[in-house]
Write a structure and sequence with these properties.
heterodimer; A: Rossmann fold; OB fold (Dihydrolipoamide Acetyltransferase, E2P); 2 domains; 6-stranded mixed sheet; 23% helix; globular; B: mainly alpha; MetI-like fold
Chain lengths: 368, 232
């Protein structure tokens, strides 16, 4: 199950020239506005004809300009969830859900009930789209796309039009979607927190070109990728196991190199979770600190340093089997005399980890 | 004065209703196609098509009627083969009245439908395509339901216009009782004879009632459909 894309298309101001592969799971197409993300999505969906390119889903060629192949959008079996939902206003939720299912014919998913249950839209079936909230609309749009039995699901900034609260409400559904379906998902976003929570693979796009691509945890913890993602958004993703909920409202998560105390996490002890820790929320110390209010102190080893033109330095620490990024000033790095190989303590405040940055983890990705 | 409606008056009303209904029903598919082409397609000659469609609106109706007579008359370049091959004759028949009424009402119908097609978000049609619907299916399941208010409004407007068509009709198919004497022609005919004012007045009132009825029906249908679409 995979998607292979190679595209060239002239856009006003720049040329899209992107080549990437998306394995099973969620691949985040990440980049700033105007990077060409939406054009990539439209080209894969068959709604835009690129100047040149080749697109292949699970070995099935959807587009090959060299060989003159260009399947029409309705023959591609590529599901789309757009930013604005695009529900049919003249149809009820049930009819909207049934729309693609009807055209899928014999390919249609066997159990529409499971999709409806997974997305929590059972109570909405008789309503008209105009009577739904933004979050409900997006869940119905996701269900509608899934029930058309797509071989690939494209999600173009599906949460961008929602406020923070509705985003938080819908993210768990997307995690279930990732974990319970076996359809490759290409998820377009410019929000690092969404990418960190959902993606198994990240493709960073800027000005029409793929700058970096790789497994999420690896890419987000790579100091070299920081300029691509933007230093303010830099942060590493740690996966761990939920150990216990404490009475004071904190949850304990075990990671490969220690434990983290975080604001209350949904889920039963034993569940795998994924936590994003912003690089600028991490403090470094050379000696084991004492008498600190911060609850999370992790011992690790400096594995890489990267300084750019600004006053900051990105320090990558090896903590157990995970990598953690810290963004500190060049002055601090000099004062601590940081160098690769050196033992170091990373300090992170529990409350600095936003609830939006904690989510359920995907089953461990297959080894390369 | 209003108590007795004569057989001739009934004939005129019945004929007018038939002519207008046939005119609207026959021109609706072409109206949808033309409106869609003008709203969505970019092709050479688009402005010329637009001009042709609107021509009956600005030409004197007598001119339109005369051109129809030249083209669709028994010896006309279009009328002769149609009659020879399909047995469809227009000259001095009620079908000719329907053709004249349809052509005169066409610009109004196309205009209403075109505006509603332009209001449809193409993104919805794209979404339908990604769900597996081919173009004709997209049109039937998404575009058509969304433009339904415009189609209804355009159809009723065209019907009302067809009911009132006079100049082109009388020029093309004359004023034959029972065949081409529609309401306006009948009113005109009654006014030509002494003592015909009463009959003319009754027909005038019938015209007003039918037109008002059509207008109210179109409003009501439009509101009903808009409500079904959730106010969008």
């Amino acid at each position: 199950m995979s998607l292979r894309v190679s595209l060239r298309h002239a856009l006003p101001g720049f040329t899209l020239d992107a080549r990437f592969e998306a394995p099973e799971g969620v691949t985040a197409l990440f980049g700033p506005s105007g990077a060409g993300k939406s054009t990539v999505v439209l080209a894969i969906a068959g709604l835009v004809r690129p100047d040149a390119g080749r697109i292949e889903v699970n070995g099935r060629v959807l587009l090959d300009t060299d060989r003159g192949i260009a399947l029409a959008a309705h023959r591609r079996r590529v599901g789309c969830v757009f930013q604005e939902g695009r529900l049919f206003p003249h149809l009820t939720v049930r009819q909207n859900l049934g729309y693609g299912r009807w055209f899928a014919g014999r390919h249609a998913a066997a159990q529409p009930g499971r999709v409806v249950e997974m997305l929590g839209i059972g109570d909405l079936l008789g309503r008209m789209p105009a009577d739904l909230s933004g979050g409900e609309k997006q869940r119905v749009a996701i269900g509608r796309a899934l029930l058309a039995a797509p071989r690939l699901l494209l999600m173009d900034e599906p949460l961008a039009a929602l406020d923070a609260q509705r985003k938080a409400g819908i993210l768990p559904y997307l995690e279930r979607l990732r974990d319970e379906t076996r359809i490759p998902i290409l998820y377009v976003s410019h929000a690092v927190s969404e990418v960190a929570r959902l993606a198994t693979t990240v493709v960073a796009l800027r000005a029409g070109r793929v700058l970096r691509a790789g497994p999420t945890a690896e890419l987000l913890a790579d100091p070299e990728a920081v300029p691509v993602l933007g230093p303010r958004d830099a942060g590493s993703v740690l996966e761990g196991r939920l150990v216990a909920h404490h009475e004071d409202g904190l949850s304990e998560v075990e990671i490969s190199g220690g434990k983290l105390l975080l604001p209350r996490i949904e889920g039963a002890p034993g569940a795998r979770v994924r936590v994003r820790i912003g690089a600028q929320d991490v403090i470094l110390a050379c000696l084991a600190p004492q008498g600190l209010s911060a609850l999370n102190i992790l011992r690790g080893e400096v594995s890489a340093l990267r300084s750019g033109s600004g006053p900051g330095v990105i320090v990558q620490l090896r903590i157990g089997e995970d990598s953690l990024l810290a963004r500190i000033t060049k002055r601090s790095a000099a004062a601590l005399d940081l160098a690769p190989g050196q033992t170091c303590y990373a300090i992170a405040k529990s409350v600095a980890v936003a609830p939006a940055d904690i989510g359920g983890a995907a089953p461990a990705p297959l080894p390369e | 004065m209003l108590d007795t409606i004569s057989a001739a008056e009934w004939d005129a009303l019945r004929l007018s209703l038939k002519v207008s209904a046939v005119a609207v029903a026959a021109s609706l598919p072409l109206g949808l196609l033309t409106a869609h082409a003008l709203a969505r397609w970019r092709f050479p000659g688009r402005q010329i098509l637009n001009g042709l469609v609107h021509l009956p609106l600005i030409l004197p109706p007598v001119v339109t009627g005369y051109l129809l007579l030249l083209g669709f008359g028994r010896t006309g370049p279009i009328g002769a083969p149609l009659e020879a091959w399909f047995g469809i004759g227009f000259a001095f028949r009620w079908t000719g009245a329907a053709l004249a009424a349809g052509i005169m009402a066409f610009p109004l119908m196309v205009r209403a439908i075109r505006l509603s097609i332009e209001a449809v978000d193409p993104k919805l049609e794209q979404a339908a395509a990604t769900l597996g619907a081919s173009r004709p299916w997209v049109w039937i399941t998404v575009t058509l339901p969304l433009i339904a208010p415009g189609v209804v409004a355009g159809g009723i407007l065209a019907f009302a216009k067809a009911m009132g068509e006079f100049g082109a009709t009388i020029t093309f198919v004359s004023n034959i009782p029972g065949e081409t004497r529609t309401l306006p022609s009948a009113i005109y005919a009654f006014l030509q004879v002494p003592g015909g004012e009463g009959a003319a007045m009754r027909l005038v009132l019938i015209s007003v009632v039918v037109s008002m009825g059509a207008l109210l029906l179109s409003e009501w249908l439009g509101r009903r459909i808009a409500r079904r679409l959730g106010g969008t």
